[in-house]
Known about the structure:
InterPro entries: Fun_TF (IPR021858)
Region (Disordered): 199-223
Structural class: mainly alpha
Keywords: Nucleus
Amino acid sequence: MPEPICEYGITGQVQDSDLVRLWNNFETQSSQIPQQSDNIPPPTNPYLSNLLPLSAHHPPLSQSSMFVATCMLGERVVMDRGTMIAARGNAIRTLHKMLSSPQSSTTDEAIAAVVKLVVNDLCYGETQHLRLHIDGVREMTRLRGGLTSLGMNGSLAKMVIVADMVTAIAMEMPPLYPEQETTDYTALLESAGERSFSSNTTTLQEAVSPQNSPSSSSAPFSSLEPSTAAVLSDVEFLVDTVLGLPQSPSPWELQKVQSMSAWVRNRVAAQTEHKSAAAMNLHRAVRLAGLAYCRAIQERHPLSGVVGEAEAADIVDAARMVSLEIWAGQLGPLLWILTAALPAARSSPRCHTGKNMVMAASLQMALDDWAAAAKALRRTVKLQAWLCAGEGRDENPAGQRSQ
């Protein structure tokens, strides 16, 4: 039995050493999407410097991480379901023991452990527990004194908000943390001297340009292909128009949005493929997501109502075909692409990788540039609320769903 196992707060068993190694590898890889081209996270990475050491030395976090590791192995059909259930039981029992104590029920370790269960529920389809766990995180944070009272140098509060907003997007329901609360938290961080993100005034295109890329010196291409940039610009303009509507828009305003969405959709559909494999893969991912957004806006139906599981899997597969080097400085477009598939993908085994990518990209973006992550996720939440508000209405003058 390898010596380090006792340091993880785990009872030694034959398979634990393999799980520990897998978990450590999983935790490390989860932070690699936006890093250098050699895929080695820098030692200053907040995920590694704050969460990983905490996970390794506290039983609730280590057991929750073991459960995540067994789910990964189960997805690859190299671990039986009985072992996965046992790992979940261990995680829940250890967490309940901590939560039963007033001294430890609202500690950073306890809150982070529940956040891990939220992420696992989202990524591996245990949606029946998803809302229960995120509700628990909300209550634990309230008892602790609010987001500003959480530790880990602000990383834990960001993880909590990201988990809440990604859950809201996946389940197509309002987030538990209201916009004002997250806005106040962002203002507090900025007043404390945290770097403010320039995307408060920039477009999605500008946010992914080389000068704003953390790895621009080694980026495989110097800028987006014009047609890919055009898709991003067109769909972003459409979304901005929707988000700029008054609370009670007139029929003329709704008709204008429908006409615009049809026009943008036709432009996106007319885009041709690229000869370069790298450019083609990126363009295809952007194009598929753009068409999904246009169709949802044109029909004013939730994304889950217009994007089926097969189409969601196509979007995820297209994103996976793009190398991590390309995504390294373009987390905004990556999130934009994958959140189009997230509601339909939440119960699809084919989309586990895509859901993991959403969480990894969201968390890393939040740790690197909180205002950017909060703005990107909040835009999707607002768009989703508008789409869901149209459910059951017939706002198509022709009375027909678009094809």
